[in-house]
Amino acid sequence: MKSDQYGLSRRGFVRGSVIGGASLGAPALLPVLSTHAADGPAAADATASSGAPRAAFTDHSAALSPDRTVATACQFCNSNCRLHVDLKAGRILAVRGEDKDPVQQGQVCVKAELMPQLVYNAERLTRPLRRVSGAKGSPSSKFEAISWDEALRTIAGKLLALRDAGQAHTIANRTTGRLPRGTGSLVARLFAMLGSPNNTDVGPVCNDAGGNALAATFGLGTFTNGYGIDGATGRDDLGSARHYLLLGTNQAETHPVTFDYLLRSRKRTKATLTVVDPRLTPTGAVADRWVAPKPHTDFALLLAMLHHIVEEGLYDKAFVERWVVGFDELRAHLRKRRYTPTWAAKVTGLDAATIREMAEEYATAKPAAIFCNAGISHQLGAFDTYRVAAFLAAVTGNIGRPGGGCNFMHNTWPGDLHLPPLKAEVPERREALPVGPDYFAESILTGRPYRLRAVITQGNPLVSSANTTKVKKAFEQLDFYVYTGLFMEEAAYYADIILPVCSGLEMEGVYMRRDDRAIRWQEQVVDRVGESRPDWEIWIGLAHALAELDTRRPAVEWREAFPKRWMDYKELWDDFVAHTPGMGGMTRTRMRKRAEPLRWPCPTPEHPGVSTLYLDHPSWYEAAESLDPAHRGKRFLTPSGKVEFFTPELEKKLAVTGHSALPVFYTHPEVTGRNPTLAYSRTFVTNPVNPQAVTHPVRLGVPGDDAVHRAFPLMGMTGRPSVVHFAEVTHWTPTGKQLNGIRFIQIHPDTARRAGIRDGDDVRVESPRGSVTGTALLWKGIRPDTVFVPNTFGPAQKVGDLFDDPRYEAANTLLDDRYYDNLSGQQAFKCFACRVVKA
Q1: What is the model's pTM?
Q2: Are strands 129-133 and 324-325 parallel, antiparallel or unpaired?
Q3: Where are the beta strands (DSSP E) in 248-301?
Q4: What pLDDT does residue 206 have?
């Protein structure tokens, strides 16, 4: 496929460093102050179509010349772009990218201009609120403003009452990716002191499965390689790849700036690019090969590629012999199961010849990098699929090698930032609920294994959780719910207490991170809106409210565990640096001086940070030992010190849940074609991947039943609407709703014709769980048996009213929450049986 076949260019998803101009067709919401766009193709955004520079009409303007510029970072995607924000009299004039970062090259995407729109927004929550009337969930719910002290004391009183009644385990928290780094560590400490095991995070809704698989195979659950130059070796890392294999990741729209770095590198190295996705995206349009398997069948594709590489002797024999445990068992497993390209062709709908070509190209290009994202994570067999991808990288010698690796996106550092040891005694805790916040509804409605009674969220479960109708019923029945957020999102109408938080430009510290374990320090740009607070302050404040009300635990224990000096994020960060393994070099002083982000692990101020994990180099061995003294001399951080495909210990560990160290193919029961699927037991066992929680064991290989497709013949999948949006929050910005306020349902023209649907028709997508509406977008670049339904839309998004945008029900109304990866907790957002009809 020619990269210009669809008329797409790099300017389709990135722009020069000054925003608010005419690029991407966006409105000129911010003045153009200067033209610092990077040299090269990206600079095209700073010129008119004739090639002449655009006039900078604000140059030398007394009113629009900034009096101050603050360095911060974008809060949205994991490209973690540095932003320079120009201000005049404390008001934001413009947002620019970082020219001195060789990966960013001054570029930003459309979302950079949405950052100020979170600050200057009439819909912002500005004071804590308390429910006074109305049924939970009703748009007519009434709330009254209260003080922070009253809000936190109300929450503290409820939590203590449950604890004192022996119900601490019925308290749960759900974090989100929008949190400042380290907030989760504060939540974990507070929950430990209360005695609740249910301090869950966003991972099972996002990308935990990849991290779980990486940890099981190599020792660390993080993205393996880095963007840009490795400071230890002076060599380009991911830019040196000769082949990129992208599965289930539309990086042009989800990670535009780092993807642009890969495209620039590809132009230099002549690297080939294969994109695997059931629909054509801007990423697939610039690929050498775009292949479109059935949704939820990447597992079969990867098994077949692995089978072909092993059988044809295309693997790296020296690396396998020296560094891999369990290769012979893997080869026997692949042969016994007959996971051949011919077999996979029947499952995926691809040609066997194409699968063989993909395998050979990946195996023979040196080095080759795999990238995966939510398209893999949001599958029923996510953990096992990622394990097979890790096997592919290892057998070809593409792990611990610049330009290679398993770059499973969002499996990033920082994860568990460590606080000073807790001196206070903590009560024993019973087992946590099955991993993942999508189990909250089941717990509330059925009481299995026990009923949640109090929930705090930093996200919006009424849009992000599977089977929205069921979630609504659960939150209607929930005894006590605290919503924290920027806006009155859907979940807020179910809350008893609402707490207003700050946006990214209103706080100092470390907010977002780049996929390659890299972070930036960001300065506070503007004053906080109203009485909003950053999340770490909320949890420290809650701890002090608990100290005032707790009649069992001495107040001093709460106050010593959460010192007030941590209200200053700089003080909190210093403690994280001092107590977190592998982090000694990541001081705020050092990061403030850097144009580029700094990668973990980075054990000392002199260490450059690790780009390529497991690289046979002194810088890696130093970093590995800093993580744990037991790692001294180890290349891979597994028990054996090698890549582990199969060990008796791993087999025994996974067998309790119905899985094996050597993955066995299965897929979602609503994939067409009577494929092997799975059945869940009603009993619970300890989750071996997340041992703090329980899970349902499964029986794999259960014959599939295609009956559901008699009424619902298509396969639906959800995903991000476009480069404009990141989760729900961007739907609360005027630009977000102007550019992409319509939910476009992508349907193949042949499928639409059979249903009597024309381009632009109002349509309804129906599944066995419910239905949602949207506008038909006839798109030849999608499988005829597949429908794409953009997510993150919700009925509370009133900003769209300005443009007469419809108020949509959440796309996750269509999903069945019963089907989830019982190891990682990952929900199956990427397949559901459906049909499309005219609305």
Answers
A1: 0.94
A2: unpaired
A3: 272-276, 289-291
A4: 79
